[in-house]
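Kindly review this record before class:
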Amino acid sequence: MHLIDLLRENREAVLERWFDLIVKTYPGLSSMFLHKKHRWGNPVGTNIDGAIAGLFDELLKDEAGEDLAPLIDTVVRIRTVQDYSPSEAVAILIFIKHVVREQFAKQIDAGEVPVSEVLQFESRVDTMMLVAFDIYTKCRNQLFELRLEDFKRHFSGVLRKKGITVDYPKFE
């Protein structure tokens, strides 16, 4: 049997396990909250759940499409503003490798699923991780720029009250 066929047949179980592993990275009660399936009551969990479903579908394609980067952006942007380290922010994407090896270990070990297909799938995940790191870096830079602009506005207001004007240079 082909790995892609197994993944398609077990889509919901794989996605549920992947989501569970992601949720476990959140502290305490946050993990319970993230399991709620309500768009307005749990926007973070809903966005992550939808994004990983889309990413899973992209991983099953022969070649990644245009939807890959925006889906990765959804997950990574959330993790970036939550102050996870770079590795923690993008590591959740690699969890799919663990899920596949865990759920299909018997078929892989028995040779029912060619190891070459597992390696090919994992290579796609690795490519997704590289894209994720690029997106994380861009998000982190945007966050830094927003914080810097906020600081400059606040600091400029304080200086204006004291009668001091400052022109900040633009960084490109």
